[in-house]
Design brief:
There is one protein chain. It contains 24 helices and two strands. With 490 residues, the chain is an all-alpha fold.
């Protein structure tokens, strides 16, 4: 990887995945302080103390509105990335981020908990927009042999954001009553760094060539990002993709549902990429604290356990960077789904028996770390690059919008239903996620083609064997009203 491409991946990570991971983890530490602030504010305004149920409801709203903002951001990602380009769309995401930091940072000074709610909403808009553009931008800027490696850096940025959020929330740092507004405004610093550095980088070469028809700009961007050398083959691949889609405009989500040339790409996107909340990582984290306490870790030290989990996530995504181009996407996915299914099955058993034998909680600890490591090596890293690789340029923005919408909706629904699921099923709730992981292992192994080292058109041809199964004659792929490419069926 060239130094310029590495710097771009780093800067994109600061403004994209890092912001998402930071907001996911940073909200846990100041929970009691914000609840106390809501109580004091209502008492000062209305002269009476709000009920515990009302405070809990307002706190739930503070937490869950982030998903609503994320959904709004994801909905806008497709239009902004096509209308203004990947780089400008990423820069737009810094505006709601800085606005959210200002609102939450001055909320206590202004005596308004509503500013926290509004700030979380804008932080969600930033997360939904920036995360989608981050995946797309990084994947399109990488040469074919490094496409997976560069895309996985987004997963590393998310893990790093979670770790920093946990670290800042420690009592020794910002996790105290007097400093929680500064903690909640911590996203301003990465937004400023991103806003000041990204303008020095070029836009995506694929966007410049295929969407803007700027071949000269594409060649300059390629040389800037990849260094001096012969990049003719890569540019020829982009030209072939441009010829394949001809003058077609960017597709909408309705086209994803409707168009036969992308039917199995869409099915793969929905099952493998858009349902990642069903893997069960959030449920494992929920049970992790009780498991660690039963294993002898004092409750006061659970924040430090979070740091250990965060470090594990970062290390496993770094491992995925080195494995993804060697082992291949398909192999990493189906094997990791299989291991996670086994880990969830055994975890169901050990959690059910953890009060029966003194050594069982230690088995649960081992299984939790196996699950976290496997998740980082497999889905957390591989799925960052998959939408870029299985869709050609005209469908890619719509695919990312759909993927983002589905993930944010699932995050919101799971956040609401999760307490009831745990209360009703206990540790047996893992069976739901076990079933999903096992089903995806079978689907990926039997259906999904390998994308490693292939051009976008080669991947499209692999999926055409599924989209036009049983047709041996020459098939003209029709996308909406335009004929895009003629492929000879084998």
């Amino acid at each position: 990887m060239s130094y310029s491409l590495f710097l771009l991946a780093f800067v994109l990570g600061i403004g994209g995945g890092f912001q998402y991971g930071l907001q996911i983890s940073i909200i846990n530490s100041p929970a009691e302080y914000i609840k106390s602030f809501i109580h004091e504010t209502c008492l000062r305004r209305y002269g009476s103390s709000p009920s515990e149920e009302m405070i809990t409801l307002m706190w739930s709203f503070v937490v869950s509105i982030y998903s609503i903002g994320g959904l709004l951001g994801a909905l806008s990602a497709g239009y902004l990335s096509v209308r203004f380009g990947r780089k400008k769309a990423m820069l737009f995401a810094d505006i709601p981020s800085l606005l959210s930091a200002a609102l939450m940072g001055f909320s206590q000074l202004c005596g308004s908990f509503e500013m926290i709610i509004a700030g979380r909403l804008f932080a969600g808009v930033c997360g939904g927009l920036a995360l989608n553009i981050h995946f797309m931008y990084a994947g399109e800027c990488a040469p074919r042999k490094l496409r997976g490696l560069v895309a996985v850096t987004a997963s590393t940025a998310i893990a790093a954001g979670k770790f920093v959020g946990f670290a800042l929330g420690l009592r020794e740092v910002l996790g105290v009553d007097a400093l929680w507004p500064i903690l909640m405004a911590a996203n301003a610093l990465p937004a400023l760094i991103h806003l000041l550095t990204l303008p020095f980088f070029p836009d995506s070469p694929r966007y410049l060539l295929i969407d803007k028809k700027d071949k000269e700009g594409c060649i300059k961007a390629v040389k800037w990002l990849w260094g001096d050398g012969d990049h003719t083959a890569e540019i020829d691949d982009m030209m072939a993709e441009q010829e394949a889609i001809r003058e077609e405009k960017a597709k909408s989500m309705c086209d994803l549902f409707r168009d036969r040339p992308v039917r199995w790409q869409f099915i793969t996107l929905f099952l493998v990429c858009s349902c990642t909340q069903l893997i069960g990582s959030n449920v494992v984290y929920f049970y992790a604290y009780s498991v660690f306490i039963n294993a002898g870790i004092p409750p006061a030290q659970t924040h430090y356990v979070s740091l250990g989990v965060g470090i594990t996530e970062i290390l496993t995504t770094l491992m995925c960077i080195f494995l993804i181009e060697r082992a291949g996407r398909k192999t990493l996915l189906w094997k990791s789904y299989t291991v996670m299914a086994l880990a969830l099955g055994l975890l169901t058993v050990t959690l059910s028996l953890q009060d029966s034998f003194s050594w069982v909680p230690y088995c649960s600890v081992v299984l939790i770390f196996i699950f976290i490591m496997t998740f980082g090596i497999g889905p957390a890293g591989v799925l960052c690059s998959l939408p870029t690789e299985i869709f050609i340029q005209s469908y890619r923005p719509a695919a990312y919008v759909f993927n983002g919408i589905m993930n944010w909706i699932q995050l919101f629904i799971l956040g609401l239903l999760f307490p009831f699921i745990v209360e009703g099923l206990g540790s047996f709730c893992f069976i739901i996620f076990l079933t999903y992981c096992l089903s995806m292992a079978i689907f990926v192994f039997l259906v999904m083609p390998e994308t490693t080292g292939k051009t976008m058109l080669q991947v499209m041809e692999e999926f055409n064997h599924l989209n036009y199964r049983g047709k041996k004659k020459q098939t003209t792929l029709e996308q909406s009203n335009c004929s895009v490419v003629t492929v000879t069926r084998l």
